[in-house]
């Protein structure tokens, strides 16, 4: 008798990110305490919380840069390290975290997003300089550069870009990975309206294609408009649910988000955007 | 087995020397004259090799902001060399263990105490260096110590040359084979981590390469001045280009030029070879700093002047 089939069907579909009883600390100073999170596949989650609330720490743990004190973390039901190795986790860093003086062009920066996938290329290909990578890698790079409208800057050194352009290059690099899970650390900080619109629409398309989008943000307006769910965090989980239920004065006051003012206007639904 | 390898190595060096002399033969007699001595030929080959390895690695040192770490490791290598000498081990093993221990120690100090990186490095490497000075003072003469500290490229013998050659080839192969992980780790370690690269392995691999380079340069410029060769070529190249591969090529060129010219000058003017090499490198940097097309001081001044002209009415 073969039974595994039945067992498989009974097993619930794994979450994109599942965190259980997670605690983390810097120098004995707790930043996350007993956090439980479950983010379903294919949804767009906005993480909102004050500075030092542990938003970036959560990302650092998912990326394996930091070890938690306690707790279990899985991505798509597996060890995050394995998922990273498979190229399923893409990360868009904050602008300040990147060395913009580095001697590298825009397209070569986006190509680094393919470095994980290049591990499965033929061995002699991998000994050639990245510029001679297989053409399908370059196809993805060019597609991503066009998606963020940076194709005309492909050969520029990254140091010569403006703030919004830098953000778009970082996004293109994350997209070039074609990962199932996108982690974005403040993708909208310091960008102009046009770039913001472009970035949000692009992420909406990613979500429509079945990818999971998780973004840390301070921009409640866009969280309300685009996200499927909002996670309020301040060392512990304050609340998690639909934007309309979370982005209300009472919940935000409990999260201690500074500078929050109510937005009266209801924005058009997602479908209204091209 | 070991002996046949050694014969092979010596044969290889002799072949390289022969090729080198073919090149020198094309130079005018006045320039080629010092290289008629066989010790100068060996010195020239060593200098070229060391200039090339240091130039290659200095790109990573400069871009990763590891200048102080390079300084720390180069000093910390001293007790390793001394202890390896006591135990009869190869130099390199002791040097690497000392270098790795120091970098681990620096990391641990940084993470578990209030100390910042610079204090942690300063503390670790001076302590290690002091230990080295004490041990060497017990087991060897002062000239020995001076040779390790400041190098003596004119006295290079076959075994040291062979070591330099092997380290050079190893460093070149490693940078070639692991170019993408190294690039990614230097550029953006978080991204490397997200893509599932083993950043710990890359980190210590790079430190291993750095130690290798330092040990290879011991005889030429010595451990005090090697850090100059690990910074200056890369810094010079960084002012000249916006591409990592070009930067590596330029950096190697600067390293080799400085080594060769410095060696020649040290022979002609009868001054210390290590000092002469580093001074030539510094001079090359100075010229680049002034004249570099984009990041040079003159170019910057010119651009600022052109920008300022139409708005003379506004203050500043």
TrEMBL record, chain A:
Keywords: ATP-binding, Nucleotide-binding, Transport. It comes from the Bacteria. SMART domains: AAA. One of its GO terms (molecular function) is ATP hydrolysis activity. Residues 17-260 form the ABC transporter domain. Transmembrane segments: none annotated. Belongs to the ABC transporter superfamily. This is Manganese/iron transport system ATP-binding protein.
From TrEMBL, chain B:
It holds the Pfam family ABC-3. The chain crosses the membrane at residues 12-31, 43-63, 83-109, 121-140, 160-183, 195-215, 247-265, 271-292. GO terms for biological process: cellular response to iron ion; iron ion transport; response to zinc ion; transmembrane transport. Keywords: Ion transport, Iron, Iron transport, Membrane, Transmembrane, Transmembrane helix, Transport. One of its GO terms (cellular component) is ATP-binding cassette (ABC) transporter complex. SUPFAM superfamilies: ABC transporter involved in vitamin B12 uptake, BtuC. The keyword Methyltransferase does not apply. It is found in: Cell membrane; Membrane. Gene3D superfamilies: ABC transporter involved in vitamin B12 uptake, BtuC. It is a multi-pass membrane protein. InterPro entries: ABC_BtuC-like, ABC_TroCD. CDD domains: TM_ABC_iron-siderophores_like (cd06550). PANTHER family: ABC-TRANSPORTER METAL-BINDING PROTEIN (PTHR30477), IRON TRANSPORT SYSTEM MEMBRANE PROTEIN HI_0360-RELATED (PTHR30477:SF13). Belongs to the ABC-3 integral membrane protein family. This is Manganese/iron transport system permease protein.
């Amino acid at each position: 008798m073969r039974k595994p089939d039945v067992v498989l069907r009974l097993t619930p579909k794994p979450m994109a990110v599942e965190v259980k009883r997670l605690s983390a600390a810097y120098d004995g100073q707790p930043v996350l305490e007993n956090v439980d999170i479950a983010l379903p596949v294919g949804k767009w989650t906005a993480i909102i919380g004050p500075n030092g609330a542990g938003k970036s720490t959560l990302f650092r743990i998912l990326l394996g840069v930091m070890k938690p004190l306690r707790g279990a973390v899985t991505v798509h039901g597996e060890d995050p390290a394995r998922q990273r190795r498979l190229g399923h986790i893409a990360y868009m860093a904050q602008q300040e975290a990147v060395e913009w003086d580095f001697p590298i062009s825009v397209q070569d920066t986006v190509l680094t997003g393919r470095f994980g996938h290049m591990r499965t290329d033929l061995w002699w290909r991998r000994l050639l300089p990245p510029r001679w990578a297989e053409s399908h890698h370059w196809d993805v790079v060019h597609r991503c550069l066009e998606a963020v409208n940076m194709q005309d800057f492909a050969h520029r050194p990254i140091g010569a870009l403006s703030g919004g352009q830098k953000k778009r290059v970082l996004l293109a690099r994350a997209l070039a990975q074609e990962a199932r899970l996108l982690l974005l650390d403040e993708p909208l900080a310091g960008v102009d309206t046009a770039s913001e619109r472009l970035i949000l629409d692009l992420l909406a398309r990613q979500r429509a294609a079945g990818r999971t989008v998780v973004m840390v943000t301070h921009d409640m307006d866009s969280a309300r408009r685009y996200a499927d769910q909002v996670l309020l965090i301040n060392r512990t989980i304050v609340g998690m649910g639909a934007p309309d239920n979370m982005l209300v004065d009472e919940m935000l006051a409990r999260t201690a988000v500074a500078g929050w003012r109510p937005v009266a206007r209801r924005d058009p639904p997602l479908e209204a955007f091209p | 087995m070991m002996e046949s390898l050694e014969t092979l190595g010596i044969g290889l060096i002799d072949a390289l020397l022969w090729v080198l002399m073919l090149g020198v033969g094309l130079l005018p007699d006045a320039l080629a004259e010092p290289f008629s001595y066989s010790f100068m030929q060996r010195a020239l080959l060593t200098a070229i090799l060391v200039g090339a390895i240091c130039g290659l690695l200095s790109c990573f040192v400069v871009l990763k902001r590891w200048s102080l770490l390079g300084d720390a490791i180069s000093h910390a290598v001293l007790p390793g060399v001394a202890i390896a000498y006591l135990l009869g081990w190869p130099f390199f093993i002791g040097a690497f263990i000392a270098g790795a221990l120091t970098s681990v120690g620096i990391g641990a100090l940084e993470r578990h105490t209030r100390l910042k990186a610079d204090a942690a490095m300063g503390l670790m490497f001076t302590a290690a260096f002091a230990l080295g000075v004490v041990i060497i003072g017990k087991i060897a003469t002062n000239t020995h110590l001076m040779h390790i500290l400041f190098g003596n490229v004119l006295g290079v013998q076959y075994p040291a040359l062979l070591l330099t050659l092997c380290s050079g080839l190893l460093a070149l192969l490693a940078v070639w084979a692991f170019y993408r992980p190294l690039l990614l780790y230097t550029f953006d370690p978080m991204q490397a981590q997200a893509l599932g690269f083993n950043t710990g392995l890359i980190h210590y691999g790079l430190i291993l390469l750095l130690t290798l380079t330092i040990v290879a340069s011991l005889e030429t410029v010595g451990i005090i001045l090697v850090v100059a060769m690990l910074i200056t070529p890369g810094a010079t190249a960084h002012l000249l280009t916006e591409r990592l591969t070009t930067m590596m090529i330029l950096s190697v060129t600067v390293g080799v030029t400085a080594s060769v010219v410095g060696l020649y000058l040290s022979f002609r003017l009868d001054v210390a070879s290590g000092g002469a090499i580093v001074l030539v490198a510094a001079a090359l940097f100075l010229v680049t700093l002034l004249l570099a097309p984009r990041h040079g001081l003159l170019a910057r001044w010119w651009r600022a002047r052109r920008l300022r002209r139409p708005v003379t009415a506004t203050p500043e």
